[in-house]
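Progress against Task 2.4 (sequence-to-structure conversion) is shown through the following example record, which the project officer requested during the mid-term review.
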Amino acid sequence: MKKLRFYISLEKEEKWLNEMRSRGWELDGKHTKYNFRKNSPNNTIIKIDYRNFKSKDDFQNYITLFNDFGWEHIAGTKTSGKQYFKKIDERAGGDIFSDVSSKSERYKKLSNMWISLAACYIPIFIGLTKTINIATVLNPKSLYYTPGLWQKTGTSFWWSFLFETPFAMVRGFYGLIFPCLIILYVIFAVKAHIYYQKTNLEN
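Structure tokens generated for the chain above:
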């Protein structure tokens, strides 16, 4: 089974994954979507870290270290950021973090990641501002090139209008995609930073 969800709060994501596991759906992989496989319901704990690695050796040493302490790596790659673990040893603690500082640090890394993505799109947007025609945004009709479109009526109009609308949107509004992404990524970064501060206050 595959599910598509998005979380900024790692605690909420952990809670959902643990609920899925208690219902018999075990996390089997995570890319764009969560991949689950059917299993017997159990109360095994799933925890999430956030970390990237420059080399495969560093990544493997990281996985081995957690495994030695009773946590099996079940999803994540050396560059995916999020790393998913399940508890496999009853003697292991209830969390993969030994202190609040380590737990909150993952949110700081997550916030920095979103800020980096926003920063990457800023120069692209600046370059596109030279090609964006504000007049077309204020007058959307000018984005439709079909001759006599606005004089047509009935089925003929709707057929032509609906056919050309996707092309018109690409012509007029493609430049707005980047500022929307920049704003969205900044919002995600701010939320992650709030979780970072909130987690630190738990100390």
